[in-house]
Amino acid sequence: MPHNADPRAQQSAIHALYSDHHSWLYTWIRKRLDNQFDAADLAQDTFTRIHIRQEANKIKEPRAYLITVAKGIISHFYRRKSLEDAYLEYIALQPELITCSQEHLHIVLQTLEQVDTLLNDLPHNVKKVFLMSQIDGKKYQEIADEMDLSLITIKRYMKQAYVQCLTLMEDDFFE
C-alpha cells in the first residue's frame, strides 16, 4: 500500500466504483462468456484486483480501466479453462486406475497453470521442445527429427527450459 494512501479514501473509492459500474461490467463480461456464473465471478475478480492494487481513487476513466483489468482476467480464465479441458481430456484417455479427488484435481490444475505461465516466458520452439519431451515422452532425437533441428539444438532448448524452471522455482522458494 502506498505510504500516503488514506485507507478510508481507498475504501470509499472502491465502493463508489463498484456501486456505479458493477452492473455494467457484469453485462460487458457476460456478453463474452458462456455463462452468467463465470461472468459474475470474473466481475467480482476485477473489482477485487483493483481493490488489492489500491488504485481505485486514481482512476480517471472508470469503464476503460475496468475493461482493461477485466480483459486480463478473462484471458487468464480462458487459459486456465483450456489447461483444465486438456487435462480432463488426458485423464479420460487413461486407464480406469486414475481417479482424482476434487482437491487433487484442483492442485494438479493449479500446478499446470503455474507451469504454463512459467513456460510462456520461453521462446515458442523451446516451449514446444520441452512439452514434447516432458508431456509426450519423446526422446531428444525423435524431437530433433520431427522438428528438423539438430540434436545439439534440442539439448540447448531443454537446458534453457530447465534453467527457466529452476530459476522460477528458486524465486518462489525463497520468497
TrEMBL record:
<comment type="similarity">
    <text>Belongs to the sigma-70 factor family. ECF subfamily.</text>
</comment>
<keyword id="KW-0731">Sigma factor</keyword>
<feature type="domain" description="RNA polymerase sigma-70 region 2">
    <location>
        <begin position="17"/>
        <end position="82"/>
    </location>
</feature>
<dbReference type="InterPro" id="IPR013325">
    <property type="entry name" value="RNA_pol_sigma_r2"/>
</dbReference>
<dbReference type="InterPro" id="IPR014284">
    <property type="entry name" value="RNA_pol_sigma-70_dom"/>
</dbReference>
<dbReference type="InterPro" id="IPR013324">
    <property type="entry name" value="RNA_pol_sigma_r3/r4-like"/>
</dbReference>
<keyword id="KW-0805">Transcription regulation</keyword>
<dbReference type="GO" id="GO:0003677">
    <property type="term" value="F:DNA binding"/>
</dbReference>
<dbReference type="GO" id="GO:0016987">
    <property type="term" value="F:sigma factor activity"/>
</dbReference>
<dbReference type="InterPro" id="IPR013249">
    <property type="entry name" value="RNA_pol_sigma70_r4_t2"/>
</dbReference>
<protein>
    <submittedName>
        <fullName>RNA polymerase sigma-70 factor (ECF subfamily)</fullName>
    </submittedName>
</protein>
<dbReference type="GO" id="GO:0006352">
    <property type="term" value="P:DNA-templated transcription initiation"/>
</dbReference>
<dbReference type="InterPro" id="IPR036388">
    <property type="entry name" value="WH-like_DNA-bd_sf"/>
</dbReference>
<dbReference type="InterPro" id="IPR007627">
    <property type="entry name" value="RNA_pol_sigma70_r2"/>
</dbReference>
<dbReference type="Pfam" id="PF08281">
    <property type="entry name" value="Sigma70_r4_2"/>
</dbReference>
<dbReference type="InterPro" id="IPR039425">
    <property type="entry name" value="RNA_pol_sigma-70-like"/>
</dbReference>
<feature type="domain" description="RNA polymerase sigma factor 70 region 4 type 2">
    <location>
        <begin position="113"/>
        <end position="165"/>
    </location>
</feature>
<dbReference type="Pfam" id="PF04542">
    <property type="entry name" value="Sigma70_r2"/>
</dbReference>
<keyword id="KW-0804">Transcription</keyword>
